[in-house]
Amino acid sequence: MSGIKPFETVTVDTDKVACAGEGGGLVGGHPKVYLNLGPGGRVECPYCSRLFLKRGAPAEYPPNQTSKSA
Ligand SMILES: [Zn+2]
């Protein structure tokens, strides 16, 4: 109860995932996209905001200080 999870978290075993939204189709989903898991073994889908977390990766990834410039 130390974190807010507004979206679904999906555990995966690879560094690259494909997401098409809920159900894996266009029904309630979005066009299929491929996402590469970034540092910390996680990536958030820009369409449906689901979080893909690589199995074995820490559940809590140290957040950036929000002061990082692109
Ligand atoms: Zn998605």
Bin the strand percentage.
Answer: 35-45%
**Alpha carbon gap, first and last residue:** 32 Å
Which strand order spans the largest sheet, edge to edge or round the barrel?
1-5-4
Per CATH, what is the topology of the domain at 9-54?
HSP40/DNAj peptide-binding domain
* Major sheet details: 3 strands, mixed
Description:
A three-stranded mixed β-sheet has the order 1-5-4, with no helix packed on it. It has strands spanning 9-12, 16-21, 29-36, 42-44, 51-54. It has a domain at 9-54: q5lls5 like domains (HSP40/DNAj peptide-binding domain), CATH 2.60.260.40. A hairpin with a 6-residue loop joins β4 and β5 (51-54). It contains no helices and five strands. The model has no long low-confidence stretch (mean pLDDT 79). 0% of the residues lie in helices and 36% in strands. With 70 residues, it is mainly β. Zinc ion (ZN) is lined by residues 19, 21, 30, 45, 47-48, 50. Zinc ion (ZN) binds at residues 19, 21, 30, 45, 47-48, 50.
